[in-house]
Write a structure and sequence with these properties.
alpha/beta, Spore Coat Polysaccharide Biosynthesis Protein SpsA, Chain A, 2 domains, 47% helix
């Protein structure tokens, strides 16, 4: 069994996927790199096969019909033989020094008889055109260099949460919780992180800048205008996360720290949905924002109260044109501070 399986979802990724794969090869025989060709129309499958031929004991190739990012991640989980599982998008890459440190730490933990559920590290916004790179770290909220549980988790800052870029999950945990991401849907990386959380018992955080998250392509799914154009998919993911929270509420409520973190996660996702709907400036999208909040209320009034009466919920629902202007101005300030989109 490999130590770590790394899935690379690829759709027409020929122009940049080599940088991603090359950054992962230093993991050597400890790592299984699963290149998932999601129905690409360019040279992605040719490049993938080239790597498989050069590194047959490390690289595995999955060719499938196009099903979207979630479908490619699902295929990666199905094919994974590693004890742990990581997703690295084809336009991103990893820092070699941090990569080796993480692999060594995972091996050290296993030698000590410790198979943790979730490994967390930092990620860096590699925003094109900016010399100063913003690193997202968690040292204020998580114990460092030790195994810990939810009771040891401290307070996350408003607007901060753990992304797919930050996590390595135990593969069996992903399978045991029944994780299956929706096909032909963007932004499902949030579900990838969110759904396994109630199953997570043990964690480890290493304060290293591992994942390099590229932002800069005009067609990128996190480009603001692209997100507004795909707002219905953002809303779909938002609702699926609410549905899951409500379905698993009794299990989630059994652990107060899990509940608090998952509610905070929903707070941020609903804020993203709301601000993009406001930012579009379209009357139909303002109606969608109202409908989204009504949906949450209809599913769980207590959850709705926690989201609606919080700092972010209040900011997203300021009345009138002036209120929406204030919301957008606040959003722009956050963009400058956190360097997203």
């Amino acid at each position: 069994m490999k130590l770590l399986s790394i899935a690379i979802p690829c759709y027409n990724s020929a122009a940049y996927m080599r940088k991603c794969v090359d950054s992962l090869l230093p993991g050597g025989e400890d790592v299984e790199i699963i290149i998932v060709n999601d129905g690409s129309k360019d040279d992605t499958p040719v490049i993938a096969e080239e790597y498989r031929e050069r590194f047959p004991s490390i690289v595995k190739v999955v060719n499938k019909e196009n099903g979207g990012h979630g479908s490619a991640v699902n295929a990666g989980i199905e094919q994974a033989s590693g004890l742990y599982f990581k997703v690295v998008d084809s336009d991103d890459w990893v820092s070699q020094s941090a990569y080796i440190q993480i692999l060594n730490k995972l091996k050290e933990l296993l030698r000590g008889g410790n198979s943790i559920d979730m490994f967390i590290s930092n990620f860096v916004y590699e925003k094109e055109g900016e010399k100063r790179k913003k690193a997202i770290k968690y040292h204020h909220a998580l114990p460092q260099d030790e195994i810990f549980t939810w009771k040891d988790v401290r307070h996350f800052r408003v607007g901060q949460y753990i992304l797919m870029h930050s996590v390595i999950y135990r593969t069996k945990l992903l399978r045991d919780c029944g994780l299956k991401l929706p096909e032909h849907t963007f932004y499902v990386d949030n579900i990838f992180v969110f759904k396994p959380l109630p199953n997570v018992k043990t964690m480890f955080y290493m304060d290293v800048n591992f994942y390099r998250y590229f932002i800069g392509r005009e067609d990128q799914s996190v480009n603001e205008q692209v997100m507004i154009g795909r707002i219905d998919q953002q809303i779909k993911v938002n609702k699926l996360m609410v549905d899951y929270y409500v379905e698993e509420k009794q299990r989630i409520l059994a652990n107060g720290k899990v509940r608090k973190y998952m509610v905070n996660y929903l707070d941020i996702i609903t804020t993203v949905s709301s601000v993009l709907l406001i930012r579009s400036g379209l009357e139909e999208n303002l109606k969608k924002k109202k409908e989204l909040w009504q949906y949450i209320r209809s599913k769980d009034k207590v959850l709705w109260m926690r989201l609606r009466m919080g700092i972010l919920g209040n900011a997203m629902n300021l009345p009138g044109k002036l209120g929406r202007r204030i919301t957008i101005d606040g959003y722009k300030i956050c963009q400058r501070i956190f360097h997203f989109n």
